[in-house]
Amino acid sequence: MLYAHKELINTYKSNYQIEKAVKEQKIFKIEKGIYADRKNIHYLEVIIKRYPQAIIQGSLLIIIIT
Asked: Is 0.85 surpassed by the pTM of this model?
């Protein structure tokens, strides 16, 4: 599952605790502000998490951000 930084603050209470969890491989940093509980994440999952209002259409991946 993917988590935004704001969601992890509720669980880990501080940036230090988030960084510690990443070092201990309890969670994985996928990109800035996005973390996951597993190492390999499909790029579409990241796009959906980053742009929740986006409309993803077709096999060529057309992203419309509203």
From this structure: no
Name the E strands within 1-66. 2-4, 28-31, 34-36, 55-57, 62-64
Q: How far apart are the C-alpha atoms of 38 and 36, rounded to whole Å?
A: 5
Residue 2's alpha-carbon distances to 38, 39, 41, 49, 65, in angstroms, are 9, 10, 8, 7, 20
Tell me the per-residue pLDDT of 31-49, one tens digit each, with 9 for 90 and over: 999 999 999 999 888 988 9
CA distances (Å), origin 4, targets 10, 50, 59, 62, 66: 11, 8, 27, 23, 20
Here the tokens at position 31 are 């990109």
